[in-house]
Amino acid sequence: MGRPRLPIGTYGQIGFRTEACGRISAHTRYRDWDGRARLVQATGPSKAAAERALKKKLAERSLFQPTPGSLGPDSPFPELVDYWLEDLDLEGRLSPTTRQLYERNMRTLVMPAFRHLTLREIGVARCDHFLKQLAKRSYNRAKQARVVLRLALGLAVRHEILPRNPMDHVARLHRAPHTPNALTPTEVNAVRAAIAYWEVGRSVPGPKPDGQLGAIVEVMLGTSARIGEVLALRRRDLDVTGAPPTIRINGTIVSRAGKPTARQDHPKTAKSLRTVAIPSFTAEAVRKRLTRLHDPSPDALLFCSRGGTPLTTNNVRRQLRNVLQLAGIQDVTPHMFRRTVATVVNERAGVDLAAELLGHTDPKITIQHYIRRNEMVNPATAELLDRFLARDD
C-alpha cells in the first residue's frame, strides 16, 4: 500500500539540510487546494529560524484556495456578507439597481438579526423563526430577506464553508389572500378632474404647474407602462402621426445611491421591451406635451425638468399623492393605473392580451398581481336555471 495522502491544506514531516553557503534549509510536502502535493522550503541562519520561516510560508499559502483564508464556519456573519457582495461584483451579472437593492435588503432586514452570530450558529430553526417573525410585520420584507439570505448562505456552501444551506429547509412563506386593487372608470375620471383642477392653478398658491402630471397619467393609462418607463420616453420613441399612433417602451429611469437620476437604455425585463398602440386620449396628451418641448433633438425626454434632466419616480409619486389628497382621494399610486389597465383588458379581451400589453412573460403574474377579480357571475346562469328549474304550476 502507498503512503496515505495528506488532508488538503496540511503539510507532512519537516526535514532539514545544510546548504553550501552554511544556511539551514527546512522543507516539507504541502497538499494544495487542487489536491496536488508540492515541495515548500525556506532557509534561515539556524534550524529554528528555518523552521519558523517555513511555517510562516505555509500559513500564508493559499494557492487554488476557493475562499479567503480567514473565512470559516466560526467566522462572523458580517464577514460572509462582505465576501458575498464582493462575489456579486466579480460576477457582474446583476444590474446596478438590483445589486443596490440586494445590499440594502441585507443591511436593513437581515443583518440586525444575524450580526452577532457565526456561520456555524445559523441553522434551519433560526432562519425559519426569523422569516416568520418578519412576515408578521410584512410579507414583502420577509420575501426580500429570504432571497438575499439564501444567496449569501448558498455562496458559503459552494465555497465549502458550510456543509448545507439552511434556507433550503425553511417553511414556505404564506401570503394572506388579497385581490389586486384597480380603479373604476368613474374613479379614473375623478383622478383626471382633480389633476386638471390643480394644473390650472385653482387649488393652491405658488408657481403654476407645467401640465406634465396629467400627461404622465394619460400615458400610463394608455400604455400600462411603469412610471419609470413613462418618464424614460424620448421623442424618438413616439409616433403620434401613424395609424395607429404608437409608443416604443425601451428604457426606464433609475436613481442610484450617490449618483444622479438617469435614463437606463433597457426596461425591467426583455419582455418589457415593446411597442404599444395608444388610444386617442393618450395620443392627444402626448401631442400637447410635444408642443411644449423646447429641445428638438430625438433623444429629448418627453417628461423632464426645466433643465431637461430626468424626473425622479419618487418625486412624481409624491406630487400625485399630494394633488389627489387635496381633492380627498386617497391610496392612488402610479402602479394602480397599471392594474386598472390590466383589469379592463382582461375583462374585455382576455388575460393573454393583458399580459402581452403589460410586458409579462407569464400570464399567472398578471392574474395574481394585476387583475381585480370580477365578483359578478355570468348572468347566463339565471337563464339556464329558469329554463330547466322553473316552477311547474
Molecular structure report:
With 393 residues, this protein is mainly α. Helices cover 46% and strands 9% of the residues. It has helices spanning 47-60, 77-91, 96-114, 124-137, 139-158, 185-199, 212-223, 227-231, 280-291, 313-326, 334-349, 351-358, 363-369, 380-389, and strands spanning 15-18, 24-31, 37-44, 238-239, 246-249, 252-254, 262-264, 274-277. A hairpin with a 5-residue loop joins strand 1 and strand 2. Helix 2 (77-91) crosses helix 5 and helix 6 (185-199) packs across helix 10. The protein is elongated. The model has no long low-confidence stretch (mean pLDDT 87).
Secondary structure category: mainly alpha
**Would you identify the CATH H-level superfamily of the largest domain?**
Intergrase catalytic core
Topology as H/E string? EEEHHHHHHHHEEEEEHHHHHH
According to CATH, the fold-level topology of the largest domain is hpI Integrase, Chain A
Which spans of ≥5 residues are poorly predicted at pLDDT below 50? none
The rounded Rg comes to 32 Å
User: What is the number of strand segments?
Assistant: 8
- The CATH architecture of the largest domain comes to Orthogonal Bundle
- Average of pLDDT: 87
Which percent range describes the beta-strand content? 5-15%
**Molecular shape:** elongated
Helix content: 40-55%
Distance between the termini: 102 Å
CATH class descriptor name of the largest domain: Mainly Alpha
How many domain units?
A: 3
Protein name: Site-specific integrase
Organism: Protaetiibacter larvae
GO molecular function: DNA binding
Keywords: DNA integration, DNA recombination, DNA-binding
